[in-house]
């Protein structure tokens, strides 16, 4: 089984070969099968209409699974999980492929107002109960589950933390600066020890039209807020920065949702800063506080850590729900120790931005640090990284793993030991070890454990493993761990860099197979592999995001019919890959 290093294969399956990029299939290892758990448009409530590609409505979409799943969270044991065959599945609906959702739409500019309303409703978060027939059957969503919920662009969120109520967060619809409608471009995320769902608002800039808006401090520019292009200002004035200058400051946060309570108000936590949040993953510090690790997914942007002011209390849910409301914020600097040792490695420090409620950045108030975190961080000299995606503590070895997906803009003059390749199109994965193994430490050591690419490329590195026995990989994005602490990596971008479908890999971190990267599955043409949840050695949940997203593809010119349910159009889905039992 996976996680039995030293017993022959640690993997428990035979890795698959790379899949040519035009393949319209999910490929799983021999002995495995896969099934869709839930797809875009599947009805969540008892009276929700079934999905009908040619007769979509905003009202139906507000009650159906959203589009383009990214982060996936699975839990069991909540109220309603009566037995081993019920669970709760939550997933981000990061963005929409408008050109694949509707016939005759070649770009967002072609959307009717009603289609725009459908698009707004397809963003956000989907929560659904799931069930399976028995332990060897795949999970499937439950229409009408008690905890089922759709969070979309009109769903109210509370704002908390030091910047809540700031004049910079007030709008004509919300003069208190504490209540926001919607969450946007939710990419990765993490589960808290108290069972809530954290989600990162990532490329929110694309929804705002800022043409003609004044930008004296360069704040809009630093966040890439320019001409928009999604057309949302046509149906909601608030997406026009000229009309509603502060609305854009109300996105780019980490949000927390209590998936067990469908009536709860989700929260945007300003204490964790505002940037293009890939996600946030938490671990307890030695003294019982909560550390949250975060990446800002942009070329040359930064890694961050939040540490709560207060400590976690086992079983005290009401208290734990306040932990991300107050604490310290840091940004990472990674120093190399030189190439002579043959490793990309060194030491590092967490540079303070906010400590004990006081700004550590000259010229910036706490509110300004939290709302314009990128500009505040620029002042203190952190390391400019190659697009930090998932940053996640390994629950088995206590180390932190961070995926740098790629950065083709890095020049030879901009190379450093932590970002060692110019025109880095394949990315790398970095391991951080906090001093004393304490997630509350302010210093750490680091080393790159994977320099991605084709193994025959001398620049690549697979944690020391024999490169004749590993799989090619490019553009690491989401990461996850199995119960044995093996690293699982999903990719976003391999069609463009290797002409392969995106895929999910396992890479053991210990034992005789340390660094032996093998491919577990691949997703169909145009899709990105997201989510992964490693339920067990033979059981993995994966989000298949943007299947069929290929230049020129449309409903009249489909390149993918994933998940092959007979309706002829690609439908982003969460799938379950599992070992087939019997014959
Ligand atoms: Fe939405 Fe950074 O990937
Ligand atoms: Ca070194
Ligand atoms: Ca991502
Ligand atoms: Ca991605």
Automatic annotation (TrEMBL):
Listed InterPro entries: PhoX, TAT_signal
Region (Disordered): 152-176
Protein name, as recorded: Phosphatase
Source organism of the structure: Knoellia aerolata DSM 18566
């Amino acid at each position: 089984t996976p996680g039995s290093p030293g017993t022959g294969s640690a993997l428990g399956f035979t890795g698959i070969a790379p899949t040519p990029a035009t393949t319209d299939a999910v490929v799983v290892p021999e002995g495995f099968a896969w099934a869709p758990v839930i797809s875009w448009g599947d009805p969540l409530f008892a009276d929700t209409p079934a999905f009908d590609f040619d007769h979509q409505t905003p009202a139906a979409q507000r009650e159906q699974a959203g589009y383009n799943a990214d982060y996936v969270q699975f839990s069991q044991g909540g109220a309603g999980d009566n037995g081993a065959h019920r669970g709760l599945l939550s997933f981000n609906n990061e963005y929409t492929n408008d050109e694949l959702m509707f016939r005759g739409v070649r770009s967002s500019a072609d959307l009717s107002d009603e289609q725009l309303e459908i698009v707004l409703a397809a963003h956000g978060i989907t929560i659904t109960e799931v069930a399976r027939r028995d332990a060897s059957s795949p999970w499937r969503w439950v229409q009408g589950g008690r905890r089922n919920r759709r969070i979309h662009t009109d769903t109210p969120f509370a704002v908390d933390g030091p910047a809540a109520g700031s004049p910079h967060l007030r709008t004509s619809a919300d003069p208190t600066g504490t209540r926001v409608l919607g969450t946007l471009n939710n990419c990765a995320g993490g589960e808290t020890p108290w069972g809530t769902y954290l989600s990162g608002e990532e490329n929110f800039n694309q929804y705002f039209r800022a043409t003609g808006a004044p930008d004296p401090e360069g704040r809009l520019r630093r966040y890439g807020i320019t001409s928009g292009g999604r057309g949302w200002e046509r149906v909601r004035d608030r997406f026009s920065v000229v009309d509603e200058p502060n609305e854009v400051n109300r996105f780019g946060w980490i949000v927390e949702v209590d998936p067990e309570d469908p009536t709860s108000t989700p929260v945007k936590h300003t204490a964790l800063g505002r940037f293009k949040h890939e996600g946030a993953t938490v671990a307890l510090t030695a003294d019982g506080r909560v550390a949250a690790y975060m990446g800002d997914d942009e070329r040359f942007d930064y890694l961050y850590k939040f540490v709560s002011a207060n400590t976690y209390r086992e079983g005290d849910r009401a208290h734990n729900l306040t932990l991300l409301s107050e604490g310290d914020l840091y940004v990472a600097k990674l120093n190399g120790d030189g190439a002579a040792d043959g490793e990309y490695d060194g030491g590092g420090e967490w540079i303070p931005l906010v400590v004990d409620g006081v700004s550590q950045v000259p010229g910036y108030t706490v509110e300004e640090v939290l709302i314009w975190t990128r500009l505040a961080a620029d002042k203190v000299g952190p390391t400019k990284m190659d697009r930090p995606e998932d940053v996640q503590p390994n629950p088995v070895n206590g180390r932190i793993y961070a995926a740098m997906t790629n950065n083709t803009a890095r020049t030879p003059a901009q190379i450093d030991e932590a970002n060692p390749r110019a025109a880095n199109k394949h990315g790398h994965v970095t391991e951080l070890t906090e001093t004393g193994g304490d997630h509350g430490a302010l210093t750490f050591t680091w080393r790159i454990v994977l320099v991605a690419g084709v193994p025959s490329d001398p620049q690549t590195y697979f944690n020391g493993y024999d490169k004749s026995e590993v799989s090619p990989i490019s553009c690491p994005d989401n990461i996850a761990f199995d119960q044995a602490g093996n690293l699982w990596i999903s990719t976003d971008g391999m069609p463009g860099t290797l002409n392969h479908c995106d895929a999910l890999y396992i890479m053991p971190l210990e034992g005789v197979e340390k660094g032996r990267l093998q491919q577990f599955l691949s997703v169909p043409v145009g899709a990105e592999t997201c989510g992964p949840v490693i339920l067990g050695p033979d059981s993995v949940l994966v989000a298949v995001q943007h299947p069929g997203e290929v230049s020129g593809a449309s409903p009249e010119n489909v390149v993918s019919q994933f998940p092959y349910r007979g309706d002829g159009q690609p439908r982003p889905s969460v799938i379950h890959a599992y070992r087939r039992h019997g014959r």
